[in-house]
Amino acid sequence: MLIRPYLIAHRLIPQLTWGGTYIASHKKIEDESVKSMMIGQSYELTGTSSLSSVERSGKLPVEIADSKLGDVVEVVGDRSSLFSLPSLIDQDPEHVLGKKVSSAHKKMPLLIKFTQAKGNSFQVHVHPGAEFNHWKPKPESWYFFEKGKVTLGLKKPLNVEAYKKVCKEIEMKANELASSVKGKGLSISEARKELASFITQYSPYQYVNELTVDAGTIVDLSAGGIHHSWEEGAEIQNGNIVYEVQVDVMDNECTLRSFDKGKIGDDGSLRPIHINEYFQALDIDEVHNDPMMYMKKSIVVPSDGIEKIPLFETLHYSACEFSFAKEYTGSECTTDAQQSFHHLFVKRGDISIQAGSTTLFVGQGNSVFIPACTGAYTLRTDTTAQVIKTWM
Q: What is the mean pLDDT of the chain?
């Protein structure tokens, strides 16, 4: 195994009804077919990431993945340099992941996503240690690159029974209309219009906190149990531009939905809703539903010759953003084989990374995996750059 950093291939997730061109533009992807896609997410790190032996990010291929499972269905560009992260881990889990990580996980346990999203369903994840049925916790945290809109926590005074009753009434109406569409008794446009009108009358929004968040806002949902959703509006034309770090758990094992915002498929299909289980998982302590418990502004802390912003520090992962000029060789740039790998995402600027005899040239919007055994590495840029580092 070569002890060196590796570029991670772009893995883009196109969407039919949301997403946009922000991600491809930020990454400066030049392929016209990719630039025109509605990209909803980019997987910056996952258990199945493809690493590359090339040393310049401009030569990386682009993986196009399925919107449901995230599996690669097409590769744009030369794929000959690619190999899988699991194949590298298999060679020496301790040296690649770090002894602490590999002793707890035999594979990469994190999923890091760069997202352009409009509204999603009202949802909750179970609190770690409070699992039930087949539902697993999914600790996750958000960092907003641009202004965004969310719901977060239940609104005071909490009226859980009324909220649950409204969700059930909407679910019943949605099922009734979906059946009419499938039976050809109602057109899909008529069904959507009627359901939208019903939702306006029985709005679940009256029971949750609605917030507009500034660029640079950090939201930590790693404790679980708290209602949340992304929203949309004219004031956020690009939708929510979010950098997400989470424990990698399949959606159907962790996401409990109470309200899907009137979405009906063209064929009359509905996504599963889990109202009883959503309310079972929901933390209904009024104090815990204060959104300020989970939000903070990004604050620059001068440290070790750089401008550092602590992002997330959870039981499952940590992340920080730092800005540097010209060259940086400080404490943020040293892995520990006893502890954890590093993942770097270049938020702004272009950088080079030197570790031993290997030098990578990494453009804006690209990600790098640095095995735990790498040790010290050096970052350089012509002017200034911003990097997000994640570790466990």
A: 95
